Amino acid sequence: MTFVLLAIAMPVISCILCLLIPKRFMWLAPIVSTLLMFVSVIAAAVLYAKGWHVEVTAGIPWFQAGTSVIELNVFVDGLTLPMLSMVILISFLVHLYSVGFMADDQHAGRYFAFLGFFTFSMLGLVVSGNLLLLFCFWELVGFSSYLLIGHWRERPLAGAAATKAFIFNRIGDALFVVGLMITWQFSHTFNIPEIDNGGWISVAGLCFFGGVIGKSAQFPLLTWLPDAMQGPTPVSALIHAATMVAAGVFLILRIPFILVPGTATVMAVTGAITALYGGWKALQEYDLKKILAWSTISQLGFMILAIGAGSEQGAFTHLIAHAFFKACLFLAAGAIIHSLYHVAKHNEFDPQDIRNMGGFYKVTPRLFIATTLAIAAICGLPLFSGFISKEMIIVPMFRRALETGSFISWTYVGVFFVSSMLTVLYSYRLYVNVFFGPRATPYADLTPVPPVMQWPVSLLAILSLWIFFSWNAGGPGEWLAHFKAHPGNISVAQWHVIFPRATIIAWVSFGWTLLSIALGWYLFTYRKTKPRESQFDLDHVYDIAVLTPALRASDSLAKFDKQGIDTGLHLFAYSQVAIAKIASYFDKFVVDGSVSAIAWIARASGNILRHAGGGQVQSYLLWSAVTLIIFIFWILK
Amino acid sequence: MISQHLLSYLIFTPVVAALVLLALPNSFKDYYKWIALGVSGVQVLLLFIVFSSYNPGEFEGFHLLEEITWIDLNGLKVEYLVGIDGISLPLVALSVIVLLIAVISSWNVSDRPKGYFTLLLILNGAVIGSFCALDLLLFYLFFEFMLLPMYFLIGIWGGPRREYASIKFFLYTLLGSLLILLVIIGVYMSSYNGTFDLLELLSGEGNLANSVFDRVTPRMILGWPARNWAFLFLLIGFGIKLPMVPLHTWLPDAHVEASTPISVVLAALLLKVGAYGLFRVGYWLFPAEAASMSTLVAFLGMLSIVYGAMNALASKDFKRMIAYSSVSHMGFVLLGLASFTVEGLAGAMFQMTSHGIISAMLFLIAGVLYDRTGDRTIANYSGLASKMPVYTSFVLVGFFAALGLPGLSGFIGEIMVFLGAFRSDYIPGWIAVLSTAGLIFGAGYCLWTIQRMFFGPYAVRSEGLMQDLSMREKIMLLPLAILILLLGIFPQLLLQYINPATNLMVKIFGDHLN
Fold this sequence. Notes:
The complex is a heterodimer.
Chain A: H1 2-20, H2 28-49, E1 56-65, E2 68-76, H3 80-101, H4 108-127, H5 131-149, H6 156-187, H7 200-215, H8 224-227, H9 233-242, H10 247-254, H11 261-284, H12 288-308, H13 312-347, H14 360-363, H15 365-379, H16 385-404, H17 407-435, H18 451-462, H19 492-498, H20 502-526, H21 538-591, H22 596-614, H23 617-636
Antiparallel strand pairs in A: 1-2
Helix pairs in contact in A: 1-2, 1-4, 2-3, 2-4, 3-4, 3-9, 3-13, 3-18, 4-5, 5-6, 6-7, 7-10, 7-11, 9-12, 9-13, 11-12, 11-17, 12-13, 12-17, 13-15, 13-16, 13-18, 15-17, 15-18, 16-17, 16-20, 17-20, 21-22
Chain B: H1 6-23, H2 32-53, E1 63-73, E2 76-84, H3 88-105, H4 113-132, H5 136-157, H6 162-190, H7 198-203, E3 220-221, E4 224-225, H8 226-241, H9 250-257, H10 260-285, H11 287-292, H12 294-314, H13 318-339, H14 342-373, E5 381-382, H15 384-387, H16 389-402, H17 409-423, H18 429-435, H19 437-454, E6 459-460, H20 471-489, H21 492-513
Antiparallel strand pairs in B: 1-2, 3-4, 5-6
């Protein structure tokens, strides 16, 4: 418990210190915050050493809602610990990398403060013991993502991307809030272990999944993620590849009781669409970071598909594996872009376009090796993490398809293979374009990549090896496979008993990967296919179908507000003035000639009416008195 | 000694100071603001004493009661009865803080300062008085006494269209006051002892048989029970002040024309008096009727939330946008009130205080720009973040609090209202669900404004020296930002006062409803 709190507290301290550091000592900010993150890493390591099967719940009262008390509580179990350690480790490496990456940035203090705040929010999300608290951190990671995407405030595109990311997340979060409302009504507690199941859980589950769609960039709320690449690259690696976007997947695993059949199908279908769409878009993209972003979307869809199809364990293993190899790829991409940046600025070309790269294997051999490992992992080659996680996904999926024989289960298996192939294809294309082929630009004046940026990449590449996931390179073993998210999980010993065909499936999967690589070679090396940038963009659809109508509706409401309601009001006021005028004419031309007593009465009434439109205080008091008298007469009659 | 008449000191210090100020010759005109500041300082001290002598666990109901018979005239008995409970205490505290900030914000008023500060001080006493009054007629008097100073403060010290705005404000609120007055007289005439005493009226026992608001045999007016009419009148009357769509159109105009400190007081306090009155008078005296009309009230709340937010999205004027955001946020108060659950009511009350702080901050933020350029058009600014970083930080806090980011005070009120509204037996679930659209639109107008005005390359298309915040501006904004954070992270600071009071109210309502 102490170490959990220690690990969480370090980034907060880092955030506060970085915000308070005076301008003169700004160079201290990166060092201080990186060191503090290192303390967190040690705390996480201690937690590991103590063993994983701890389950901790502890809390203090936060505030009282109605008759129940909402707690600030933590819930640490076998699911939390790997996630917690992964977040801390990648955050530390990203901090370290940023020391080099942000060296020339004037606002590095702000950057490191927000990075610390993000890490804190993400860790809070992971250890939260109740759904409301989890939701708070859920929104806070979105907020820090907003700040970090918009770090370069002068860039108009960065501001737009930050806003878009937050609003897309908000759409999902509104649904999340509905889920909270349903849970509150039927369960009257938010404490995750205490929520009782009922028929309502399927509706609530769908609402929570709405939140997941926003946060994990699932179809249809996915276009914010490629735009979010406007942020600094280390931020993309940490937030938009490894941790925050995976929070959606984590949420489902945190509350696995929402996985009732209907909801699970919705998830699997959403994930399948996302996986295919993301892979397809990644194939057509030329911006290095955006390829990785679409790839992330595709991989997240893959995890959601796996959860929906019944492979929660595999999905979680893939989450962790993906976090390491994708962070590695992003940081490597950042280093390459970083080294090209000055040349590109001088010669006015886009440093992120893969058409401007090529032959990089000679320039930065260490990066080349690291990227090779990460690419092998994402393709799912044996001896790498991706192979194990993919096997853990496909084996239960396959078994369920065989058992039920239903069309939809076989569709999931089909989608799995197609999206695996897409993954291999876009990875191959990226890899070959960046590291091989002719040099597109002279490298004489490339900015060298400092070691502080190279080391994190190398370390992450090493973490993509099988050994960190399972002793057995061919399938699940001790380590991550052993997490206990919920009782249905299978231990390693059971694995081969339950899945006698696992080995065959692993071989099939391997063969399929080789086939995909061959196809990649044929398409991109032999035929030299240059995919056209796709004309279809979901954003256009949203523009036409949602954004424009919403803004138009707002505009017409504003017009209605100005004209509709006020026109009525003005008409009323004018009619009062008109009556007063008529009375006044009447007063002048008709009454003036008659008996003076009558004339006096008429003038008095005319005055009353005229003043009514004029806004004089006395006349209102008179009006009140008159109405009051009428009212009193009325009720006493 | 002092603790016996604590609330009276709080209410009448500014009134006395206003009289002193009136008596001072014009040669003292540089000291008027110091007098106003001094009064606010004294009030802050008094507030500390109030908090230290208020122990929510001690007993339920009202604390610091003061009771003197004021008018006793052949059965017409009006009492000077003041007291606070967990619902009014946060609002009193809010008033003291906001009025202090309003004085600081008025520091550079040079046009007829005597009138200005006198009116501000009268407004001060009237606002706090209406949060403390427990006698209906006394409440009404304080309520009306806010109206006049506000009318002049907008009409004399306002912008170019101030006359239109102030007349509109006056007409609207006068109509509301009239309806409220009718009900108050009806209540008086139906009470057994002929009393305006809210505490006595709440129990509902002293109800005159066959009177207009008789509970047992309802009097029908136009085929509808008179008590229902009464609640409807109060809903309209206080709804205008709240403001509730579709009775809100005075608000954007009044805000756009009013000067910054007046906008701050208007948004942070006067709207709260409307909501507070609806609760204290409408819900106290007519709980069964309120419950039967809960769907209507909740629907109007939802309408205010969504309609206000969409109008804010379409606003081209910075201040107008903030004004509409107030409409949207006050919708949550209506929704919470309609729920009749502890968390919904407590959420509504929390939202009132929280919105008071947030709206004060937002209007000060708008004032900062207006002071520099005299231009409020959103499209005329861009990239302010690079030129005014400190200002931008405050803007981020204010706007993210407005859109309900967890950790800031706006979130707590909203989520509690949502939880209570959905759970409520009196509101259909779809109203609560549709209200969540306000979360999306809220993020939309807040972030879109930030994006247009603060991100991108620096450009300002109007005259003026754009420099970062002055010390005076920081002094005003910093406490508000701290309060927003404090209440967001430790909501129990307020809820420890609010919860017992709303618990009690729900219990009493329950007795009435069964």
